[in-house]
């Protein structure tokens, strides 16, 4: 049974209706065109003259050949013939420009895709430096002289306009066809030039009002109704001439000194009549969609002008029917973009069909102020917005377009203002037409994506899709997509030597904003397998070859273009890298010396050895070519070096010579050093180490020779032994001793009674503060009542800190200098001895001022970062390598005292503060209080 679901005017029924809200004639405007042009709107500003979008097909191209002087001659015509074969049109040379380019001409103008193919073929020619269209320049678009253009705010660049004028610099829709499925179309002098044959799809004669069913005449016979004709209680209405109004918005002729200008004034309209008296049937509309897209409809001749854009300014409450969806899916499969009105009920568009169907671009209505019109449907189904107008306060805020004065049947052509999503949809359909005219390869999905991507937000609306369509931005993006890639000249940077890395610079290319880039490195013109990065490291196979790089730009819709660099010079041998060899073993007769050659790159490298004996009065004797050498009696009194030569093809030889050994001595002069004795006592003050007496060995601490005897120890102590002149150490003998002396004393139990009046036995760090008192590191303050206080939450100053550390070290014997090491520390002030001891022991260097003097700033509180440095140096700078990832989130590896603060964490002296799961901070620049200072000292390792 045939689907008899009928579209009617009332949107409150489930049937479909044309989607216009209200219309108003222009009673003050004549029906006929006037000769006086309307002044252009202020918003219709011409585009800047710097626009380079190629809008017009061209039959000329500019080709620059590379300068091949001294290499080979160039045959331009051969290059032109190959290019001609790629597009199937003859190409001939016209002339040479003043700067040496060749201007060539085809026998007809080429559209964008053909021009791209020709340019790509020319650019790929090794003899060609670049090729580009000889683009036809035109005066930029200005406001048309149509009588009522000044009322067409929707086309302008103002707040609520789509900026159609800017898009006209690229396209006005020429070559595109838009099917308008509506009430049909009327004869109108401002529209006729752009109307192609259409069809009347209304199958019911009563609805059609033309006495028959479907026929080839899409003329609008009127849809006037009387009261109660369509439904009980429904008022009658005059004929809407809705299809003519919609068609005029899309493609009314522009610049003809009359009427209005269409958004795409050079597009063509295929009118399909599917709405008549009381509406139209879904089955008729669905057949209209199929026929518009080039599909077959029984008993209907094929459409000679299939449309790439279909406008459906119809709708009604209900879900998307299978009939509708099948027709829309077919249109999408044929490459037709279907633009539909969102509806005028001020409800969610998901309730209205076909706005809620798939494979459509659903359009809501916006006002002159770029807001959602009060009537426009909204929601997730809305894709974009376009001018639909709001005539509630001012009729001139509607959308003016072609119409007719007839109330029932057509009479005199005219222009009327209407508002509704019916008016919004054709604005978008026209922009789609200009897009497809610019780049026919666009798919319906491409059209929708670009419309959305370039839309402007609609103020205060979350259900307005991507926003207000911007014709200028959208069409110019499409023009950029369509523009053929113009190749630059790639160059290669870097030294052409084995092992060196070459870098490709692709040069300056045009029309490549969305391009993807690929690289291919070539050896003597042949591709190198796997060499497809922008950089290439030369390998042995490249030796003596010339290297080029081919850069390829690829983007959708136009041919990929490749360009190849000039070749490098022939690749020279590489340079090896090696290290100065180290001789392992001591210099005495019978000792076997070996070579530590280190790492040589690129591996593997063959190493050759040459040992040389150096003796006074000789030029040196070669004694071995092996990687090791055993000293003999002949070597006594001489020194030895070893030269290591790296050999690898194709690399230059590299020779590295070791430092000489010490003077070779007799076997009986090789000794084992006596050991250093470490003695750790319960308290730091009694810790010591003993250097033994020796006639053959010097003992060094911190790089300085020390005399035999017992010395006070603090923190880490490291002693090394070196042979005295005329002696050697036996291979394998111990020559370094290292120990760490703990700062902690015996286990400490805090007293039951606090030694300080202001420190409770229950408060944090009580044990540590009472330990300071027990060790006499801090005596506190004696108050007026003879009680002793510690002042635990007071920041500790730098002078008191010096006293703490001096006592922590066991108050070593020390006589301070007669002259203070610090400008701001007097020899008579409190803690002078302790502060000068800090300077002499290297724990604090103070600050160097602008006049070169040093200051200590004794009364300044000490910050936590400087405290870490003091304690690390008190421990004699133990061997420690700080990690690159800090354990405290507020530290940076590059900041002062980073190593020392991390050492505090590693040794357990400071845990910092936890401020979240696994997140600890150190607060480096905060002063440290006396209670925390006690804890730090107590935890010293």
Summed up, the helix count is 16
List segments where confidence is low: pLDDT < 50 over at least 5 consecutive residues.
1-18, 24-55
Task: Bin the strand percentage.
Answer: 15-25%
Helix content: 10-25%
- Output the strand order for the largest sheet: 8-9-7-10-12-14-15
Q: For the report, how would you describe the main beta sheet?
A: 7 strands, parallel
Gross geometry = elongated
Structural class computed from helices and strand pairing: alpha+beta
Say how many strands there are. 48
The averaged pLDDT comes out at: 90
Distance between the termini: 96 Å
**For the CA atoms, what is the radius of gyration?**
46 Å
Task: Supply the key terms.
941 residues, alpha+beta, 7-stranded parallel sheet, 4-stranded antiparallel sheet, 23% strand, disordered N terminus
């Amino acid at each position: 049974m045939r689907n008899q679901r009928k579209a009617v005017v009332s949107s409150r029924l489930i049937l479909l209706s044309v989607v216009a809200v209200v219309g108003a004639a222009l009673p003050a405007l004549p029906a006929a065109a006037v000769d006086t042009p309307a002044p252009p709107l202020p918003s219709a500003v011409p585009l800047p003259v710097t626009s380079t979008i190629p809008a017009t097909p061209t039959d000329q191209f500019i080709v620059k050949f590379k300068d091949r002087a001294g290499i080979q001659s160039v045959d331009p015509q051969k290059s032109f013939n190959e290019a001609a074969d790629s597009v199937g049109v003859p190409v001939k040379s016209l002339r040479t420009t003043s700067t040496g380019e060749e201007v060539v001409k085809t026998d007809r103008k080429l559209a964008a895709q053909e021009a791209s193919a020709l340019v790509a073929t020319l650019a790929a020619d090794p003899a060609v430096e670049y090729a580009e269209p000889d683009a036809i320049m035109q005066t930029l678009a200005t406001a048309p002289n149509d009588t009522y253009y000044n009322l067409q705010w929707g086309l302008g660049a103002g707040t609520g306009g789509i900026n159609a004028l800017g898009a006209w610099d690229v396209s006005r829709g020429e070559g595109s066809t838009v099917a308008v499925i509506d009430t049909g179309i009327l004869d109108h002098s401002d529209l006729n030039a752009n109307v192609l044959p259409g069809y009347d799809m209304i199958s019911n004669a009563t609805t059609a009002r033309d006495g028959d069913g479907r026929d080839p005449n899409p003329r609008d016979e009127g849809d006037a109704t009387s009261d109660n004709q369509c439904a009980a209680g429904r008022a009658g209405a005059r004929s809407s001439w809705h299809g003519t109004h919609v068609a005029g918005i899309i493609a009314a002729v522009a610049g003809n000194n009359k009427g209005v200008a269409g958004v795409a004034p050079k597009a063509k309209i295929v009118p399909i009549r599917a709405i008549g008296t009381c509406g139209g049937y879904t089955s008729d509309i669905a057949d209209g969609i199929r026929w518009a897209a080039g599909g077959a409809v029984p008993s209907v001749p094929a459409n000679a002008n299939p449309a790439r854009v279909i406008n459906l300014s119809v709708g009604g409450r209900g879900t998307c029917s299978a009939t509708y969806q099948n027709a829309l899916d077919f249109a999408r499969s044929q490459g037709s973009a279907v633009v539909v009105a969102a509806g005028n009920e001020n409800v969610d568009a998901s309730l209205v069909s076909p706005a809620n169907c798939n494979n459509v671009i659903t359009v809501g209505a916006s006002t002159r102020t770029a807001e959602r019109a009060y009537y426009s449907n909204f929601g997730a189904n809305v894709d974009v917005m376009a001018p639909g107008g709001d005539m509630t306060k001012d009729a001139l805020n509607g959308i003016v377009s072609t119409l007719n004065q007839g109330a029932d049947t057509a009479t005199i052509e005219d222009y009327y203002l209407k508002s509704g999503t019916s008016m919004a949809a054709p604005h978008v359909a026209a922009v789609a037409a200009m897009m497809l005219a610019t780049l026919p390869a666009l798919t319906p999905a491409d059209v929708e994506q670009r419309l959305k991507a370039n839309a402007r937000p609609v103020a205060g609306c979350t259900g307005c899709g991507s926003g207000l369509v911007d014709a200028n931005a959208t069409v110019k993006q499409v023009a950029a997509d369509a523009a053929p890639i113009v190749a630059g000249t790639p160059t290669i940077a870097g030294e052409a030597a084995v092992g060196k890395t070459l870098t490709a610079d692709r040069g300056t290319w045009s029309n490549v904003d969305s391009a993807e880039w690929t690289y291919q490195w070539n050896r003597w013109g042949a591709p190198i397998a796997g060499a497809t990065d922008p950089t290439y490291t030369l390998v042995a196979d490249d030796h003596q070859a010339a290297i080029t790089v081919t850069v390829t730009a690829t983007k959708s819709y136009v041919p990929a273009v490749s360009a190849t660099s000039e070749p490098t010079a022939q690749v020279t041998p590489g340079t090896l890298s090696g290290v100065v060899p180290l001789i392992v073993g001591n210099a005495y007769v019978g000792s076997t010396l070996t070579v530590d050659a280190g790492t040589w790159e690129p591996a593997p490298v063959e190493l050759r050895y040459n040992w040389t004996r150096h003796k006074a009065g000789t030029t040196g004797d070669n004694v071995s070519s092996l990687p090791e050498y055993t000293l003999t009696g002949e070597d006594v009194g001489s020194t030895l070096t070893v030269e290591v030569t790296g050999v690898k093809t194709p690399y230059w030889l590299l020779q590295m010579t070791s430092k000489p050994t010490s003077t070779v001595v007799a076997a009986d002069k090789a000794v084992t050093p006596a050991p250093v004795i470490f003695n750790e006592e319960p308290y730091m003050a009694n810790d010591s180490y003993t250097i033994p007496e020796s006639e053959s060995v010097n003992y060094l601490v911190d790089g300085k020779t020390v005399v035999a005897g017992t010395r006070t120890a603090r923190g880490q102590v490291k002693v090394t032994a070196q042979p005295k002149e005329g002696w050697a150490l036996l291979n394998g003998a111990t020559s370094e001793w290292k120990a760490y002396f703990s700062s902690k004393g015996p286990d400490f139990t805090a007293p039951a009674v606090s030694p300080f009046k202001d420190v409770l036995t229950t408060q944090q760090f009580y044990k540590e503060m009472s330990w300071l008192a027990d060790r006499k590191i801090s005596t506190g303050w004696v108050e007026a009542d003879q009680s002793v206080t510690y002042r635990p939450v007071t920041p500790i100053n730098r002078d008191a800190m010096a006293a703490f550390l001096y006592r922590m070290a066991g108050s070593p014997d020390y006589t301070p200098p007669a002259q203070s090491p610090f400008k701001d520390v007097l020899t008579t002030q409190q803690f002078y001895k302790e502060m000068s001891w800090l300077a002499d022991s290297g724990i604090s260097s103070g600050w160097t001022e602008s006049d070169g003097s040093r200051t200590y700033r004794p009364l300044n509180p000490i910050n936590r970062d400087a405290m870490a440095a003091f304690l690390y140096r008190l421990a004699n700078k133990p061997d420690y390598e700080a990690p690159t990832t800090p354990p405290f989130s507020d530290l940076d590896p590059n900041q002062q005292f980073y190593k020392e603060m991390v050492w505090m964490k590693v040794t357990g002296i400071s845990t910092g503060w936890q401020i979240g799961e696994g997140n600890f901070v150190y607060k480096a620049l905060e002063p440290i209080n006396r209670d925390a200072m006690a804890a730090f000292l107590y935890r010293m390792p």
